[in-house]
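#structure-requests
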Amino acid sequence: MKKIGNSPAFIITYFALGGIVGGYLLMAIAGAAPFLMKDFSLSADQFSTLAGLILLGGVIAKVVLLVSDHFGRKTMIYLNILLFIVGILIFTTADSYTGLYIGRLIQGAGAIMSTVLFNVYLSEIAPSNKRGMMVLIFQLSWTAGMLIASLVNLGLEQTGNWQLMFNSILIIPIIMLFTTHLLPASPRWLALKGRMDEANESLKALNSNMPKDELQAEMDMLAAGSGKVDWSQSFKLLFKYKKAIFLAVAVYVLTQLSGINAIMQTSVILLKSCGIQSDFMAIFGTILLAAINFIMTIGTIIFVERIGRKKILKIGITGFAVSMIALAIIVAVLPAVALTGWLALVCMLSGVGFLAFGPTGVVYVILVEVLPTPIRTLGFIIGGFIGLLVGTVFVSEFLVIGTTFGYPVLFGMLAFFAIVYLLFCIFLLPETGGKSLEEIESEMNKK
C-alpha cells in the first residue's frame, strides 16, 4: 500500500501550504502599513526599511542553508516551519520598532528559506515531465498567499488590528510542523550521499504508477548523475560550474530589480502617492494586484511545458517594461488626483500580471534546472545571497527614491532594469524545458 507521504497529492498540498505562508507574510505588511506607521510613529523611510527586512532575513537564511546538504532536506524543513511561527509571534507581540525589526527579519528568514528548500526538494522528487508544473504550483500557492493576505487586510481594515492580519496565518505552519515527518526522502539527495539503493527505493515509491520503461529511464538518469559529494566539497565544484552559478546570480538579481517585491509590499503607499486618497480603496487596489498575480501564475502553469521557459520569460519582461514606461509617463504628466491613481493602478496591474506570467512565474523553475545537483543548494545560496542583498537595498530605498527623485524616475528605472533582463534572456539564458536535470547539466558542461 502506498504511504500517504509518497502521494503526489500530499506532497503538492504540503508545499502549497508552505507557499501560501511565504506569500502571505510578504504581502500582509502592505495592508498593515497605515496602522503600523500610526501605532509606532514610523516614517516612510522606516517602513520601507521594515518591508525590505523580509529580504534581509533571507540573507540570514542563505547562510543557514550552507549546511542543508549535510543535514538533509527534512531536518531543514522543520527549521523552516519553526522560523515561520517564531517570526510571526515576535512581530505581533512587539512593543517597539526593534521588536518589529527582529520579527520581520525572522519572517524573512523563513519565507526566503522556503523558496530554496521547498523548490530544491520538489525538483529532486519530480519526474522530468512534471518538474516545471510541480515547482510552479509552489509559486502559484505563493501568489495565493499574497491574495489571501490582501483579502484579510481588507476585512480587518476597519478594525486596524494589524496583529490579527499576521496571526491569522499561524494555523498553517502549525499543521505543517506535525506532518513534515510524512515526507519521503529525496532520491537525488540520497544519490548525492552515495546511498543509491535507498535512492532507487525512494524513486520507485514516488513513481509507483509510472510505466516500467519510464521508471527505468528515471533510475538510469539518477545513476548517471550520482556520485557522493559531501556538502563541504561542493565549494570545490564552483569553478567547474561557474556558468551555472553566473546564470543563477543574474536571474536572482534581475528578478529583484524588476521590482515585484517592492511594488507588492509598498502598493498601498504607492497608490496613495499617485492620487488614491482612501486607505480602504488603496488596500482594495492591492487585492486586485494580488489577484492578477495569482491568475497570471496559473497561465504560466498552463504554458510552461508547451512554449518553454525562455519564451515565457521574454513575453513577461517585455510586457512589464511597456507597462512601467506608460506608468512613468502618466505620473509625470498628470497631477496626483483620483483619476491618476486609478490609471496608475491599471498600469501596475498590467505590469504585475506580466511579471507573474514571466520572471516571477518561472524564476524557480529556471534556477532548479540550470543548477546541477552537486551544487544546487550552494548555487541557490550564492545567487540568493547576492540577489537578496541587492533586493534588500532596493526595497528599503524604493519609496525614498520615489519621494526624492519623483515617481516617474522610479517607474522609469524599473523599465530600464526590465530591458536589461530581456537582453540577458535573449543572449545568455539557455532553454531547459523538457529535459532531465542530468541532461541539462551535461549540455551546460559541453558549452
